[in-house]
Amino acid sequence: MPLLYSVLLLLLFYLLLVGEFLLPTGGLMGFAAVAALISMLVIAFSHSMAAGVTMSIIVLISSPILMFGLVRIWPHTPIGRRMLNRRPGELASPPTARTTRSGIPLDKLVGRTGIAKSDLLPSGMILIDGEKLDACSIGMPIEAGHSVIVTRFVAGRIQVRRLTEEEQQSAATDSIGDSMVVPQSPPSLEQSLESLDFD
Question: What keywords were assigned to this record (predicted)?
């Protein structure tokens, strides 16, 4: 008779373990399952050493298999769907790349220049192409109003440094140089002959 109680407690242990996974009990069924398991082992060993060892081996083999199966089906249960906030079989969507308001990915801003709208100590606001963006200075702090250049995009943060005077002049020359240079045609043969003095 005690062996029958042990088998019934083993079945109760499995039932409570499944209930812990499928129902929001806050751990109460898990605690009851552990109590049923201990009681089952005590009764089995009190019956005989062979019965106790046999029941222990059954628990050691069947429990991991049951736990693995419960972990696989848990996302498809009502409580699993509610906690994961997604439908069964729906994979978590990959994180989307952060972009500016105009749709430019932030990692594509590397090498672009802008203006510090606030003091970067080291974090602050910069202005690139008319858009305000959060940025972090590398090295020394940057005062508001100074030109900056984006050096890299790491861990979701734009990192900038202050432009040197040479880089500012070079950027200004590159931006207006082509429009200011007016190509001149070479002098004609008649103009060249007129410029010569044969006297």
Answer: Membrane, Transmembrane, Transmembrane helix
